[in-house]
Every structure is written in C-alpha cells, then in structure tokens.
Design a protein that fits this description.
The structure is a single chain. This protein is of the alpha/beta class. The chain has 2 domains: 160 residues, Rossmann fold (3-Layer(aba) Sandwich), CATH 3.40.50; 81 residues, Alpha-Beta Plaits (2-Layer Sandwich), CATH 3.30.70.20. The strands form 4 sheets. A 3-stranded parallel sheet has the order 2-4-5, covered by helices on one side. A hairpin with a 2-residue loop joins strand 7 and strand 8. Helix 1 packs parallel to helix 4. The chain is globular and about 55 Å long. The relative contact order is 0.15. The structure holds flavin mononucleotide (FMN) and iron/sulfur cluster (SF4) (2 copies).
Length: 252
C-alpha cells in the first residue's frame, strides 16, 4: 500500500483503487488508457485476488499496462510470465514490470529468510525502494516499453499454482489463543471480510488471501498460524497508519 500510495503521488493525475473494493462486482472495466497493477509478490507471483482481478477486468480501452510489485527477497519471481499469460486472451501486452525489494511479512518461510526487520533496516529498504520507484515513475510517465521475456518454463510454476488453488482454505491453520479479548480488530484489518466474531472469538471463513494482516495487527498478539508463528515476531508497517489499513477493509 505504501509503494502504491507513493507511486500515485509521483504520477500525479492518477487514481488508486483497492482491488478488494472491486473484486465482487459482476463486471470490472478500466476506463483509463494507462492502467497499472501494484501488489506484493505471494508465493513467487500474484496474490490470488490479483490473479482473479486481472482475469476479470475488461481492458479494451487500455493502451499502456504496467506492474510494480514489492517482495521480501527472492529475485527470480514468476510475476511477468503470469501477467503476460493473463493479458494474452485480452490481446494486451505488458509494457513494463518492476520489482522492489522491501521486506517480508510471510509467516511460513524460515525466520532466517523472513525475519521481522529492525526499524533501521526497514527505513533503509523503504528509502532505497522509493528511490527506485522514482525512476520507475519516470519510465511510466514517458510510456516507455521494456522487452519482457515470456518464460513459460519457470521452475516455481507448480508451487505457485498449488498456492493459488489452496490459499482460500489456508486459514484452517489460524486460531486465537487465550490472550484474545474479543476486541474485533482482526475483523477490521481483513481486506476481504474473511473473519467473523463468534462468542467473542474470531472464526475464519475460508476465503482467505493469506495477507497475514489479522495476525500481524492483533493488539494482543493472540493469533497464531499453526505452530509457525508461536515464536515469530509480528510486523507492522512503519509508515502506514492503522486507519489507512482499515479503510481498505470490506467490513466497515
Ligand atoms: C503469503 C505470502 C507469500 C509471500 N511470498 C513471497 C515470495 O514468494 N517472494 C518474496 O520475495 N516475497 C514474498 N512474500 C513477501 C511479500 O512480498 C512482502 O511481505 C510484501 O511485498 C511487503 O509489502 P507490504 O508491506 O505492502 O505487504 C510473501 C508474503 C506473504 C504474506
Ligand atoms: S484482534 Fe486479536 S484480540 Fe482482538 S478479537 Fe481478534 S484475535 Fe482477539
Ligand atoms: S486478514 Fe487474515 S483472514 Fe483476512 S485475508 Fe488476510 S490472512 Fe486471511
């Protein structure tokens, strides 16, 4: 969200629309000639909600398409090939795609690969990310086009598609422990309305995107995902306010 907001400022005449706010519409149509998709990399490529959104959106009026992704650390992502595959039936091309390394809020990878960053490290990564973004914004403003390799033999292909198929029910591993006080914050943090409070305890509704927001932003640190999170730190974005995160939730 931080990078998307920064890019909006840099591009000036630009509207930022959260994908979660549109995804349940019967049809989605882009009215702008320039459209960009800004999202975090999940399991080497697009979060399922972004995959479904791009599959659904009508891009007939669009002449320039860009993608900007944030990621935890792995550089050989499968982002561009998946985007190209989704755009092909619409007879559209991906003009540019860039990856910015921020840090990872993933909870199932090893803690060594996905550590919760210190304030100093987070600041440094964000600063470098914004510098890179300024160059990307210049490229987008000038409608520049890159040669993007269509690599259909990507080694992470199988792992990515099993993630897409399973992600909605990966919330079966979520539970709240004895520290839960029924405050309901997890409901407000979920961008897709996947949590209900039953007898003052959260219940996950199996339409999860694994964004991990409920877990990281529980004020009591009472949410766990199996055993993976018992001794793992919680990550809150240093520059995004709670209010901004809650605004994108489907539950107001
Ligand atoms: C379910 C999940 C899967 C992820 N998979 C990857 C990955 O394959 N490669 C990677 O570099 N980062 C991965 N990440 C890290 C995110 O890309 C990173 O946390 C995000 O870009 C940070 O931006 P944010 O603060 O806006 O969420 C993953 C994160 C989650 C929650
Ligand atoms: S945010 Fe945490 S403490 Fe509040 S209801 Fe959800 S799990 Fe319980
Ligand atoms: S906030 Fe929690 S329940 Fe909602 S999509 Fe993200 S991980 Fe799933």
């Amino acid at each position: 969200m931080y990078i998307a907001k920064k890019l909006k400022q840099m591009l000036e005449d630009c509207e930022l629309i959260p994908i979660a706010s549109l995804i349940n519409q019967d049809s989605i149509s882009a009215t702008s000639e320039k459209v960009g998709f800004v999202f975090p990399v999940y399991s080497w490529s697009l979060p399922k909600i972004v995959y479904d959104f791009i599959e659904k959106i009508d891009l007939s009026n669009t002449k320039y398409i860009f993608a900007v992704t944030t990621m935890g650390g792995f550089s050989k992502q499968y982002v561009a090939p998946v985007l190209i595959k989704l755009l092909k039936p619409k007879s559209k091309e991906l003009d540019v795609a860039y990856n910015i390394r921020i840090f990872s809020n993933n909870i199932w990878g090893s803690k060594r690969i996905n550590p919760v960053p210190s304030k100093e490290k987070a600041d440094k990564r964000i600063k470098n990310g914004v510098l890179k973004l300024e160059k990307i914004a210049e490229i987008i403003r000038n409608n520049q086009k890159d040669k993007i390799k269509e690599n259909s033999k990507y080694p992470m292909k199988n792992s990515y598609f099993s993630f897409i198929n399973e992600v909605n029910t990966m919330d079966e591993k979520y539970y709240s422990d004895e520290n839960c006080n029924g405050c309901g914050m997890c409901i407000k943090m979920c961008p897709v309305g996947n949590i209900r409070l039953v007898d003052e305890k959260p219940e996950w509704q199996h339409k999860c995107q694994m964004c991990t927001m409920c877990l990281h932003y529980c004020p009591q640190k009472a949410i766990q995902w199996g055993e993976y999170t018992l001794d793992r730190g919680r990550y809150n974005h240093p520059y995004i306010k709670l209010k901004e995160l809650m605004e994108q939730s489907l539950v107001k």
